[in-house]
Write a structure and sequence with these properties.
The relative contact order is 0.21. This protein has one domain: 5'-nuclease (Rossmann fold). It has 6 helices and 5 strands, in the order βααβααβααββ. Strands 3-2-1-4-5 form a 5-stranded parallel β-sheet. It is an alpha/beta fold. The longest helix has 13 residues.
């Protein structure tokens, strides 16, 4: 199974936080699944650190890359088609980070692991 992680699901997995759902935890712990973190999540994490809204134990570029590698997760680049799709989505969600995740999930045909109920209002498969 190929899945896309929302930023909070990635952090909760790394922190072994109880907020991560049992389904999410099961999928992420199954090494046969292809787990992807979008480049937009890397941007979101870095942005939140620079805005003092998030603290990480290392610089975001080191932290994200090392955690992807140690967990066997991949990254998903933002392609032009993803950006164009995000701009045409209905304005259900106003967060540009989440709009890009929705566009990527739609175009790549993969579910998103997210707790965000607004994302679930789009034509996209949500796992939680």
């Amino acid at each position: 199974m190929r899945v896309l992680l929302d930023t909070h699901a990635f952090l909760w997995w790394l922190l072994d936080a109880p907020e991560l759902s049992a389904d999410g935890r099961r999928i992420l712990s199954d090494g046969s699944n292809e787990v992807l973190l979008s480049a937009v999540s890397g941007y979101e994490l870095s942005y939140k650190v620079t805005q003092a809204r998030l603290t990480l134990p290392e610089a975001p570029d080191v932290y994200v890359r090392s955690r992807l590698a140690s967990n066997g997760f991949g990254s998903l680049a933002i392609e032009l088609d993803h950006a164009l799709r995000a701009a045409t989505l209905p304005l259900i969600h106003r967060d540009p980070f989440d709009r890009l995740l929705v566009a990527q999930a739609q175009l790549e045909g993969i579910p998103i692991i997210t707790r965000d109920p607004v994302i679930a209002q789009y034509d996209v498969e949500v796992i939680w």
